[in-house]
Design a protein that fits this description.
Layout (H helix, E strand, L loop, with lengths): L1 E9 L4 H12 L5 E6 L3 E3 L10 E10 L3 H14 L14 E7 L4 E2 L4 E2 L8 H10 L4 E2 L4 E2 H4 L7 E2 L2
Length: 158
Amino acid sequence: MTIVYLSFGSNMGDRERQINDALNLLNTLPETKVTKISSLYETAPVGGVEQDDFLNGVVALETNLSPIELLDGIQSIELKLNRVRKIHWGPRTIDLDIVLFGDLVVDSERLKVPHPFMHERSFVLIPLNEIAPQAIHPVLNKKISDIVTLDPDVRIYK
């Protein structure tokens, strides 16, 4: 099984419920199980669209799915939880992104792994560092603990 890290976030409706529902649905994907979940962090949105703050975190999975099969699975979870893709970087009920997929580097039209902006986003790095400080960014060839920096705007929620 491959160890995969997904970032998750929600800033619409009952954010905690949306996240819990998504995490529970991840365990229903074939040959996939959740192994670790970070704390929740509250963060301001990025991208310039005015919207409510996000709850963010990172979850570790073990899976036998391919990267594209996992992408299809998480996109179906987003649809089940009423994710609408109208505004780029806009508000969302749930957002699930593949951050790291083992040590794979994927650069296709549908999927880029590692996530191309993860090393710039404290709301991904801080929770990832909480559950996997020794994980290696396969492009930068650095441990997450060596990339992460403290950010006072990323506030622990729970």
